[in-house]
Each structure stands twice: as C-alpha cells, then as structure tokens.
Amino acid sequence: MVESRTQARPLSGTHAVAVRVAAVAALIAIWELLVLAEFWPPAVLPGPAQVWDQLLATSNASNGQGGYAGSTLVERLGVSLRRVGYGSAYGILLGVGLGLLMGLVPVIRAITEPFVTFLRALPPLAYLSLLVIWFGIDEEPKVYLLMVAAFPPVAVATAAAVTGVNKQYVEAAAALGANRARVVATVVLPASAPEILTGIRLAVGIAYSSVVAAETVNGADGIGGMVLNAQRYNQTAVVMLGLVVIGVTGLIIDSAILAGQRALSPWRGLA
Amino acid sequence: MGEALVELIGVEHSYRTKGGAVPALGPLDLRVEPGEFVVVVGPSGSGKSTFLRVVSGFEHPSGGAVRLLGRTPVPGRDVGVVFQQPRLFPWQTVGGNIGTALRWAGVARADRPQRTVELLDQVGLGSLGPRRTWEISGGQQQRVAIARALAAQPRLLLMDEPFAALDAMTRERLQEDVRSLTDDATRGVVFVTHSVDEAVFLASRIVVLTDRPGRIALDLPVPLPRTGVSADELRGSAEYAALRGEVATAVRSVAA
C-alpha cells in the first residue's frame, strides 16, 4: 500500500485512544523516575503515589477534616463548576447578544469593539479587586469575574461569524421574500452557529482557567481555593492534585462542547 | 394584449467604480407576456446577470423603469429566482428548505408538509425530503432549488445559468423538465445562458444581448412545438438546426 507522506491522516478512534493512554502512562513514568532520582526533595516534587494518596484523602469526608479543610474534593469541584457554569452562561448570553449587534449594526461595532478588546487584554486578577469593592466577597464577584473573562471571546467570534455569513445565502433568502428579521433568524444565526460555538468553547476554557483567580478572595470552598490554601501550607501534593483535577475536568468539558458542536452543525466546512 | 408580466422601458444600468461609471446594460426595452419562456443569450460580460438583478429587484436601474406586474420589482414578490449555485441552506434538510420557503410565502403551518411533498414531487424528488442537502447530487440540489423558488407560486421565474455547473447528461434532463414550466400559461420564465443550444431548446422566444453594455441585438420567436414532441426528436429536427445556426451567428457577430 502506498501512503501519502505529505498529508497527515487522523488516527482512527481506538488507535488514537491507545496512543493517548500510552502518552499519559509515559509521562507518569518519567515523573516517577524524576522523583526516584531525588533531584528535588519530596516537598518540592512529590511523586504520583503521594498525589494519589491526597486524592483519596481529600475525597474522604470522614478523615477528620471533612476531606480537605472542611469539604471534600468532589464538593469543591461542584462549587467551582457551579461558578464557572454561571459565569460562562452569563458571559455567553452577553457575548452572543452583543456580538450579533456588532455584526449587524456597524455603528455598534465601531463603538464597542475597543472596549471588548480592552477587556480581553486585562488579566482577570486585575479586575477582581474592582469587583470585590463593588460586589463584596460572596458569590457575585466570582461569578462576575468569570463572566467578564468569558464574554469577550464569544462577542468577537459572534461578530466575526455574522459579518462573514455567505452573502449568497442572504440573497437567496431575500429572493424568497424573507425580511431582515427572518434573514437573521433563519439564515444568519444558523450559518454563524459553528463559529459562535468555537467562541463558546474558547470562553468556557478561559472561564475555567480563571477559576483559581476568582477564588483568591474568600473562595476557599472551591477547587481553586484548595490550591491556594495548600500553597500557603506547602502541601505540594495537594497543589498538584488540584491542578490535575482542574486540567482533567477542563479536558472533559472541552470535549463535551466539541461533541456538541459536531452534533449541532454537521454541515460545518461544507457551506 | 393583457397586462405584461415584465416591462422594461429605456432601462440602463451602470456600476460605479473608482474609474467612474461603467455602463453594463442598455438602454433596452422589453416586454414579457405571461406564458412566455424568454431565454436571454449573450457573450460573457454582456450584462446578462445585471439584467436579471434589475428585473428581480436586487438592483435599481440607473435609468429607465422596470415594471413587474405593473409595480417596481421587489425581491421575493411575484418573482422567484434560481441561481447558478443551488444556495440551499445546509443547516436544514431538503424538506426543511422547501418548508422555510413556504413559511416565508405565508403558507399555513398545517398545509406545509403536504405542499412540500407536492413541490418535491413536481421536480421528481418526492422521497428526498428528510435528506441533508449535501448528501444529494448537484443536479438534485438544483432541482430542490427550483422547487424552493416555486414555493411561493411566483408569476415570474428568473433563472441565472442554473445548469452551467452540471454535467452534460444531468443538464439535458433538467432542461427537459424546466421546458414545461410555462405550460401554466399564467407563469413566465426569463432564463439567462451563454449556451445557444440551451436557448434554442428551452425558449419560446430568444433575446440576444450585445457585448457590454448589453443591448438587444436580436429578438426572435421560437416556433418549435412545446408539447407532443420528444426531446430527442426536437433536438434532431431541421427547424432546430436552422434556428441554432441563426442564433449562433447572431451571438458570434455581437461577441466580436
């Protein structure tokens, strides 16, 4: 069989899974080897086994400290995911709404685009202080921080998608007697859906990666709060556990959105 | 003579560019009656597409007046358009595309499923309703586009080189089907092409446009029978060959 050497073929489903599992196993093996070689003391670089022990310990509600500092890993994950969920949802609603207006009304785009880009350039920790002054230290500033972080990529993607809609479809709709509202609802929105979903995917990723920042102020009950707390007491294994949990759940959320995107727009790349 | 379907009076159109106005069309006068199948032939760049955009209401002519059933044309009112590409909405099924057109045409929700089947039957695709638009062939897609354009039962159907992208065999089959669209004598078709063969086969009347700006070089009735003759008989007849020669000569002379 002659195979093209210039074009990369995607791996088949089971093959791809096998390769990924092997890569993770190799990574853990290298990590263990580094620990065994004792380049760094265990307090700096704990091994996979210690992180695993922390996973079991922090998941155990009856270990004398209710998991970790009062709540189990799963409870913490739930608290953080809830914050990310609300923050992303508000950010997505706001972003799609403003993005649509930006894409459809050039004046609105001209006015709002610099502000959106400005927001996008700010690190979430920078505006957390302001949000805390305005909204206190309860749930609001955390959810609003994630909303502010999630909203720009959705707005930018939506605006770009709307302006990029194939004019041939718009004209075909007009030739069928559709007014502007109908063109937007039946042509512009579905035609933009794949790109908007890409923006949403990006936004949820950014919101999730900002969860540690969001939980720096009175957020000890979340997974980000656990990482910050553990850092304070030099519990390196707990810090690493937190990172692994955030990373893995982030991966799962991302592939769920990706699957949703494929299901919602199977025609992507064909139009 | 009753009310004209389309009337162009001294119509001319030019496009504004950096180098000034570039005349694309006219001035020309044309009257299309119900039941006529007018095929507009011309060399590329003769303003055929401009002509259709002006008649469909997508462009307002820089000079003169266009009347569609006595009114200024508006896209989607009394007029259906079939473009060179099918332009079906890929986020909807085949039937969904027709259903959307019916909804925009004001057909009641309860009547749409049956009308969808009827329209698809009319173009020979009765069973394809649930399919995705990209799963069917190019010829089938263009048939769906024709059914979609007919959903609002427009009095005038405009067709802009709709078969140019299809293979020869599919093209002939679609030509045979489209030829009968004016069997309904209240409907008129204006069909634009650069193919002399297509023009002679389809038309009840051929209009040859000159090179840019497009003016009418030849306006010729086609006396070929429209019913009771098979497509092969028609294409093989002496009258067909003679007309073909006459139109081809006219097109060549304006293209020079």
UniProtKB/TrEMBL annotation, chain A:
Oxidoreductase among the record's keywords? no
What is a single Pfam family found in this protein's UniProt entry?
BPD_transp_1
Q: Which InterPro entries match?
A: MetI-like, MetI-like_sf
Q: Name one GO cellular component term.
A: plasma membrane
Look up and give the membrane topology term: Multi-pass membrane protein
User: Where does the protein end up?
Assistant: Cell membrane
Q: Does the keyword Glycoprotein apply?
A: no
Task: Tell me which residues make up the ABC transmembrane type-1 domain.
Answer: 77-257
Principal location: membrane
Q: What are the entry keywords?
A: Cell membrane, Membrane, Transmembrane, Transmembrane helix, Transport
Q: Name the residues that span the membrane.
A: 21-40, 89-111, 118-137, 143-162, 236-259
Annotated GO biological processes are: cellular response to sulfur starvation; transmembrane transport
Q: Which family does it belong to?
A: Belongs to the binding-protein-dependent transport system permease family.
PANTHER family from the xrefs? Answer: ALKANE SULFONATE ABC TRANSPORTER-RELATED, MEMBRANE SUBUNIT (PTHR30151), TAURINE TRANSPORT SYSTEM PERMEASE PROTEIN TAUC (PTHR30151:SF25)
Stated name of the protein: Taurine transport system permease protein
State the species of origin: Actinokineospora terrae
TrEMBL record, chain B:
Q: What is this protein called?
A: Taurine transport system ATP-binding protein
Read off the InterPro entries from this record: AAA+_ATPase, ABC_transporter-like_ATP-bd, ABC_transporter-like_CS, ABC_transporter_ATP-bind, P-loop_NTPase
Keywords, ordered alphabetically: ATP-binding, Nucleotide-binding, Transport
The transmembrane residues are none
Claim: Ribosomal protein is one of the keywords in the record: no
Instruction: Give the top-rank taxon of the lineage listed in the UniProt record for this protein.
Output: Bacteria
> Which Pfam family name is an example for this entry?
ABC_tran
Work out whether the entry's keyword set contains Transport.
yes
Give residue ranges for domain ABC transporter. 9-236
Please give the Gene Ontology molecular function terms for this protein: ATP binding; ATP hydrolysis activity
Positions in coiled-coil regions: none
